[in-house]
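Q&A log
Question type: sequence-to-structure
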Amino acid sequence: MMSQEEMGIYIFCAIQTNEDDQFGSIEIEGEERETFTIRYKDAAMVAAEVPMKIYHPKKQNLLMHQGAVARVMEQKDTVIPISFGNVFKSTDDVEALLENLYPQFETLFPAIKGKIELGLKVIGKKEWLEAMVKDNPQVEKMATAVKGKSESAAYYDRIQLGGMAQKLFASLQSEIKEEVFAPLEEQAVSAKANDPSSEKMLLNASFLIDRDQEESFDQKVNEAHEKWKDKVEFNYSGPWPAYNFVNIRLKVEEG
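Response status: OK
Response body:
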């Protein structure tokens, strides 16, 4: 049995509330833990008491965190996400954090009230990307030249070929941004095109939308998918709290 000193407070998200809300239990590393709220004015952290340690972002832990936040979102329309793995020594520390963050929350609460984040990743199908490279006369000409030379002789040609392929890929990304991202951006409250996270990714976007607009936004995504489905894969996710539109620094002031 762990002593009280060895326990800490894990936080999931912040909400706007005047109640001592409860959101059920979570299972963290085989242990069942009840969630509870730590309040300051009309703000609260959704938290659970857990062993005081560093929690690694392995799949099971990330799903636990996401699942807890998803349950909160089912009940609350103003949810500020907190990144995975934040454990504080005591409820007093979390209260101090809340007090320090409250001026930011006063601005954030009305900005994200009733809003959700949706994510869209567009990944080029291998066959289509290869066909695009093959059909490009300059790339094809250079590829042929490289094949006919020894490895050392073709060194600079290979660099040039790589540059051409990158340029072609950049033009495909621009096309997707114009054809897919731009129309969706018009439907959103806010939108971000993040850096691609894989070499075949043509778009890695996040959209902040009004919760009651989710169905019409889904329809827009479906229309874009219908147009591009032979060339790309769509990875559409959410709803999430506004991870990409909220920048919170977790820091307890000293002294």
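Response note: Helices lie at 59-75, 91-112, 126-134, 137-147, 155-187, 214-228.
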